[in-house]
Write a structure and sequence with these properties.
Helix content is 56%, strand content 17%. With 162 residues, it is of the alpha+beta class.
């Protein structure tokens, strides 16, 4: 299916503007018509890019983890992600600033300003596995005091070295 010209056209459209969910959702519809489980994965990613929170966010993240086990690693490896500090407890604000400074190299004032957005990017253009490893390390280190997530941002060219 990935050799289908329509498939390539969808990938190219998504790569052209990864912040626009329209092409991704149309691609998801096309995949669903073909019984492809990647459709649900793409829809969940689009949903997570919105401001869903609480139990719904946890359900979506959990379902994506389940789907990853069924998806082709080559397809997932072509996707690139950002790592986001998505939330923190007010009592851990200084820890959030510390993480942002460590991960981005920003100065104190810039890091404080970024943390105040409550959704700041701390790593860019990572493969799925790199993003998963970074998330695992951060989640273990901060153990529920800071919350992190990954967000799809684009596609690598087929065969490109990360």
């Amino acid at each position: 299916m990935d050799d289908d010209p329509a498939h390539k056209a969808f990938i190219d459209a998504i790569a052209e503007d990864p912040d626009d969910d329209t092409a991704r959702l149309v691609y998801a519809d096309w995949l669903e018509e073909r019984g492809d489980p990647r459709a649900e994965y793409l829809r969940l990613e689009a949903e997570l890019a919105t401001s869903i929170s609480g139990d719904r966010r946890k359900q979506a993240v959990g379902r994506m983890r389940q789907l990853r086990r069924r998806l082709e690693p080559q397809w997932l490896d072509r996707m690139t992600y950002e790592i986001i500090l998505s939330d923190y407890l007010e009592s851990t604000r200084s820890a959030a600033v510390k993480v942002v400074r460590q991960r981005t190299g920003l100065g104190l004032l810039e890091a404080v300003a970024l943390v105040e957005t409550h959704s700041c990017v701390i790593a860019w253009r990572r493969t799925r596995d790199e993003a998963r490893n970074i998330l695992w390390r951060l989640e273990n280190e901060w153990d529920g005091r800071l919350w992190f997530e990954s967000r799809f941002v684009g596609w690598r060219e087929k065969g490109a070295v990360p």
